[in-house]
């Protein structure tokens, strides 16, 4: 039996759009590959993982993690090709717009003159939304308001009309939508185009040292992603609910269905070069990356076991 230690970051990182590895575990796909995956969090690593899950991987306290290839790109510009993405997980922007009432004919131009409450205040997500507004000539015509830090208060502000829209990941929005407090208006996935928003990440040297284990992990993830594409949200929720013990089942179904409909889950483990390059261009345009320092796909992406 081969083993891998998977550090997921702090507990807030266990989002429902990151369910592929939980599904692989639930369905016995890791076990079928003769692989044991131990899930840990940043808190379990003490001082060795301050700042999140990436330090745990860099220090070899963990073999892999899951996060944005934007982190790998940024790390490359600062430190070189020490980290690599090796298997896809989320293939599109998982952020959504929500409002007090349904707007079935919504178009992005409807944001003109409106107030959007950026509930999450997540750097790259905010910058990406600003990029999207700029692409449609709306950057100076939409009031983007920073969230208060109190999610319940911010959702109530949108529900009452104090703000027009809430911007957040569906993971956070789904409980309010399932409760009837908010309505999902639009996914940002299709608006931003296909981008490798999240992928499994490891040190390049560890990927080489444990090549067989990582290939087995990737094969299991690919099978899980194929399963997600062929089963409804109710069935998916039942298979992963155990891993989200504090998340309401109706919200889990609502959120997973929204992500399936928006094609947020990667179709397989591949990280296409054109999507990686589109993402790096976008991240350079918004100032997350230094646009004068290209991030090479071949140095930062390996397809461990992907078929």
TrEMBL record:
What Pfam families does the database record attribute to this sequence?
Answer: NMT1
Main location, first listed in the record? periplasm
Q: Which UniProt keywords are given for this protein, alphabetically ordered?
A: Signal
Compartments, as annotated in UniProt: Periplasm
Q: Which GO terms describe its cellular component?
A: periplasmic space
InterPro entries registered for this protein in UniProt: SsuA/THI5
Q: Which residues form the SsuA/THI5-like domain?
A: 20-233
Q: Which SUPFAM superfamilies match?
A: Periplasmic binding protein-like II
Similarity comment text for this entry: Belongs to the bacterial solute-binding protein SsuA/TauA family.
- The protein's name is Nitrate ABC transporter substrate-binding protein
Origin organism is Pantoea rodasii
Q: What is the lineage of its organism?
A: Bacteria, Pseudomonadati, Pseudomonadota, Gammaproteobacteria, Enterobacterales
